[in-house]
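Standup, Tuesday
Yesterday: got the pipeline producing structure tokens again.
Today: sanity-check two examples.
Blockers: none.

Example 1:
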Amino acid sequence: MTTGRAPARLPAPALWAGLLRALGAGLEDPAGALVRARLDLPLWAPVALGAGIGAWFAAPIDPPAGVIWGLGALAVVALLIWARGAEPLRFPAALLALLAAGVLLAEARAGAVAAPVLPFRYDGPVEGRVLAVDRSSRDRIRLTLDAVQLTDIDPDRSPAMVRVTLRPETAALPEPGERVMLTANLQPPAPPVEPGAWDFRRTAWFEGLGAVGFARGPVLRVAPPDPHDRALAGHRLRMRLSAAMQARMPGQAGAVAAALMTGDRSGISEATNAVMRAANLYHIISISGLHMGMLAGFVFAALRYGLAAVGPFALIWPVKKIAALVALVASTVYLWLAGAEVATTRAWLMTAVMLLAVLLDRRAISLRTVALAALVLLVLEPESLTEPGFQMSFAATVALVLAFGPWARIAPLLPWLVRPVAMLVLTSLVAGTATAPIAALHFGRVAEYGLLANLLAVPVMGTLVMPAGVIAALLAPLGLAAPALWVMEQGTRWMIFVAERVAALDGAVIAVPAPPAAVLPLLALGALVAVLARGLPRVAGLSAMAVAAGLWGTAVRPALLIAPEGALVGLATAEGRALSKPGAAFVAESWLKADGDESTPEAAAARPGFTGPRGARVGTWNGRAVVHLSGTGALAALSAACHGDALVILAASAPDPAPAGCEIWDRDRLRAGGVAFAVDGRQIGPGQGARRWTGGPRRQ
């Protein structure tokens, strides 16, 4: 039956035509597209510089001198083309110069921070100046010492800094700046637990940390802080303020409040840290852009609207710029008080760039301000590119800037009562989505209810805790800080309550296996190209992200893992990874986390896979016997275990000559780091090559 109505025309042809035009943007005039791209060079500059820095860190060996000189020459030629070459060549030449500059910056930085690393194990007296006090992941207080003196070791070979974990019974802690002495067991920073895993040696190199260890006795005070030492004055004030706050606000609420306002996290227990991580609220207790932004935002808004209320004053003076300047000063004081660590400096830099944009009548929230902050930070500290905090901060900020445009169009359409709630949901959702893959990649977990926890906790932090902290700081000299501290305490108690309840929910944390090494650079570069480029390059960026997701989803974990120095062996079984014995907790936890396994090391050691006494555990892999010899009887058991082409892991130095009939991986062979094998018997990756930080320990 006909209705007389004309059939509806499908818009598919028009849609396809529009899509093809979008994909072909710039292809009809490539030279013109490159000329126009010069306007976006400020956005691409940190991407190209970061790519060069990333290439330097990913290299298996330190670049030879010839490569460095060649890159320097390439950078000079590229700069000349950028300055005087043909218009279409200038944009790619600038990117090439920045790429080469990234490699050169990383090389120069690695040389500038070079400091002695303890090349052997040391057990004896340690004297030094207290530089920092913090808490380890095992809930133990640690001291970082500089100006270190070790008995019978030449000062030129002594580490510039060491970190010592104190005994649990240590009561009174020394102040930063005090000179102390203690007996400690020190060793070089540990190598990675498996190929491609986090390398503490690299982190320690850029921190100037030359040894780590634990105290075997009490801490003795040798000399008080030098009153003329301005370098640690902020740190001493920080610790005193933290102690005062915790005295007025006992328990973990006071410890969290002190961490928010002073950056001192030494009072926060590992139990509180654990629930904060499980609820995706750990960013609250680590000073970041969120804290710096809230503090600067409160000072800016309070001063701006306060001055605007003073009648004629607002018509005469530029109250917006005055408020921005005072907020910048307040942020700088906060940076000095909390300590110029990498995360705090990064947060201050991003805040400072936005406040300076207000002072210069520029748009404060834009991709260009974010790019400028990233560029400055990468120039000052190229190693920050490899840190999760840098990656997550800028991922969240870029995502929020991109979401700000659509939100500005949608917000006026919403009822005014709904707008704050909708904005909070949107910012939490956008920031959480942008940072979730990075958090899963680095920490092996996804907080399933992180959005809920942030919706309940972050508003309290922004409207109660941080403002109350600022007011308490202003009223403290008058002795009137108590009411503000009480408000702050209630807010932090609420945040801890939310973290505990959310962390207790079933499925609060989902374990995620570690991805291959190529996933992070593909994901990051793909996302940046998708955001900044147009046409086919944008499609290429999205494709790179899809490839990264595919690599991650199809990754296969090693069948056999051997710990550094032969401390532990792990076999993949149907029930999960079986460990050769309990112990080596950090290695065991790292392996299980990378497997996406939430079991404890004790549970993994109890799995079927190994048999025999504790010092001579035997398993089977790829048709071969795997024998783990450890303890005092390891060398005596070597000859008996060495038959039938067995794979013997020896937690001691093998004799010379070694017994025949087996493949031996002894402590000396495993000093450079953990080793991994696939199910088919091939070794997975040789691990890190000869870099500045990879020198293994040797006996004195």
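Example 2:
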Amino acid sequence: MQFTWIGYYTELADKLLPYRNDRQALISKLRETYVQIDMKFPKLDSTDVPADIDPFTVFGLFNKGLSNANRMKIAAGFAHSFGIKADQPADFDGIPVVMALNATFYAFTGDKRRGEHDIDNLWRVFEAQLALADNDNEQTRAEFVSAYNDAVTQFSLGWKLSMGLYWARPLTFINLDSRNRWFMGDISAAGPTVAQVAPKEKDTPIHDGEAYLAICDTIRSQLGTEACPYTSFPELSSAAFDESERVNKEKKAASKKTEQEAQANALGDADVETTHCWLYAPGEGAGMWDEFYEHGIMGLGWYELGDLTDYASKEDMRQKLLEVRGGGTSQKNSAHAVWQFAHDIKPGDVVFAKRGRTEILGRGVVTGDYEYDADGGHYPHVRAVEWDAKGCWHMDEMFAMKTLTDVTDYPDFVAKIEAFFEDAEEPEDEPEERAVEYPPYSREDFLSEVYMDEGQYDTLVGVLGSKKNIILQGAPGVGKTYVAKRLAYSIMGMKDVQRVQMVQFHQSYSYEDFIEGYRPSASGFELVKGAFYTFCKRAAEDDGNDYFFIIDEINRGNLSKIFGELFMLIENDKRGVKNKLQLLYSRELFHVPANVHIIGMMNTADRSLAMLDYALRRRFAFFDLKPGLATEGFREYRDSLSNPKFDALVQRVEQLNGAIADDESLGEGFLIGHSYFCNMEPDECDDAKLSAIVEYELIPMLKEYWFDEPLKVRDWSDRLRQALR
């Protein structure tokens, strides 16, 4: 049953009115109540004991950001203290709440914003509203309007006053908080008449009591109609809350999806599927391994959840687990496992069955999508797997204590497990490795995504093809990282992620990370091959295809130390098997294949970094990436947003770039790039988003650029802000 609180709230208002002229007694009763219910009395004034109090603030004590359990606890205490006979609330549907840090309806004592008669005015409004609700006539309306007009402009009131009026008499006075205003402004939600008279979400508060009563009257007259099917203000308020929560949840999910898509596509790999490797426990203590192996499946417990496809998010799964299993643990790991089992595992992925924390039982390839078997007992969640090995192998390192673990990002660990199966007995029908069809990616695709003209692209590809090694250099935000992988893909004609690898240099990066070096192991030290060595070996076995090794922040590392003897071997005319040098540790004769291209990226505006030494400079071509604000692609993007303030801001940044280019201490290497303004949809390109770019990204950069010219920083900061006004 909904709205069980109406009778209680109405009677509490009646019980409070006699304290209008004895507020100290009311304060004492409130403090005593908090002692009885064993809760700390909240801070309601500049001192521990408030000097005065109004009735709306009393309601606010349990209509703010508290758990429902604590709200009911306070309500029960008030029922006892004030002798309330009405049933205590079993729900709080349709009740607006105030912010916990702004729960009083007055300014604290000593605050200059508090008027001498502020609390008296609130009591006067309270008394007038009860009189009007009990006997609606010309006189009670006039007294209410007068009291409302005197109080509404006081500090911290405005729309909040309508919330207080609604608490005390929810069937007579409408709540006009932001949720209700937003909801009632929608013709489809409450009808055209309500939408016409209701204040809009961004409107300023109504300072005229007569206008407020007119809104209440008009909306009340529409209740129960076909256009506005709600039968009372509480029902309307509850619908507004439910709908706003639904929309907010959808917006949050959409925002998260957009963010995830942007992250996935930051390097151009959003539509590329890769084979994942999973470590999997077939039942508690691997007790289901033999059965799963025999039936060619992998199964998962958590039968209480039912069909996993019924859940929209991982959080929904977690909440259901908390409900059915209790709140002893967070259930985050469990929710993560079942979500991955239903959504992340794909046909073609490799599964290693395990027992305990050191034992491998078998290997298989996933061949089917997620299925829910309602008759599957404790393991109703299944996927078809073609198991191709079974046995018992022990690892010298411990596994994670989880049912399902994605180990794709640990290639050394995966290689150690795979080594167990090299000499295993061949199965009768060994499954073939899944043939991956990589998405095509052409020159046209590159030009549609990257703000670069055709001439620049052709020059870039030509230089990389002849020199083999290139450094993309430019100011922050010109899209160096965004360009790098897409450039490689456009040359390959497809998004073959197996032929592209990216690393990032830093001060601690070394030859041992890049080529080879000794690392601690269980038996002492072992020689471990580095990223570039492994990449070159893979490229050498596929010399008919181009391979691309991408180095982000190339000038942050100690390049002579990292490249070592490869200084010579990376030159375009020193490639191939005829040009070998002996490596430092293994003494292996090593060469860099001719089909390996190196793409480095360098930030020209980072003054903390030294320039590359000339020995390495001679081996790289340097290509300047400039801001793409004036390119045809960016102009099309601007037009798609259709936002005058965005256009004005971009125009101002172009002017700023002119000033930066003309500055002798800066120059073109410090221009502001276009990526600060990318990846926005029309509905999210609002004032708050643009202001955040200016305040938290552009202005801090200007302060660094012109650290010794504060007047110039202030001037351009003001110009950027003015573009948004």
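Quick observation on example 2: Residues 1-169 form one domain. The mean pLDDT is 89.
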